[in-house]
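Me: I keep going back and forth on a fold encoding question. No explanation is needed for now; the record alone will do.

Assistant:
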Amino acid sequence: MDNFAERLQLVRSQIRHAVGIAGRPKGCVQLLAVSKTKPAGDIAELYRLGQRHFAENYLQEALQKQRQLAAFNITWHFIGPIQSNKTKPIACHFDWVHSVDRLKVAQRLSEQRPAQLPPLNICLQVNISEEASKSGVDLAELPQLIEAVSRLPRLRLRGVMAIPEPEASYSKQRQPYRCLYQAVRELNRPELDSFSFGMSGDLKAAIMEGSTMVRIGTALFGERH
């Protein structure tokens, strides 16, 4: 179990270092542990080490883990593709959804969010590299989607999420994040305070360009089989 402690310490150290280089305030970046395909026991280990935010891609797998870990005060983030017929359990069982890419999905999440729960935190997924295989709204259509989603009840629109095309070069990793961050800032909507940018391979570049949440899987849990 020492591995979990070492990995968590290393990732947190990398985040702190990147935040320092970027000249940003301490504690401005939230670590999301991406636990897809990993057992509930692994989540429990990281929880005992102080990690509270966990992100899942697959709904059925996530719901099963949530049942197993019901005694834990976990903040659950959904980051996978959303089918319209799966919105109800997402609306009922998550605190954050990062992968909303069309108004229909947002409307269903709004309608199906239970009244006794706080508003569901929403990030809009932007296809910043314009890849045909990737989900996400085009950057040009983002302002219109923001306007529409921000009017929906039971939702709290928080910001954007992006998964750019992988790049080995640090400067190329930074470009798409910079482009999206600036585009959102130019809309002059202070409520959009969340930028779900960066994974294990481009964490430093993402933090340099304004990330407030990094989604880390492999560096915390090890390779997926």
About this structure: Residues 5 and 49 are 7 Å apart (CA to CA). The two ends are 19 Å apart (CA to CA).
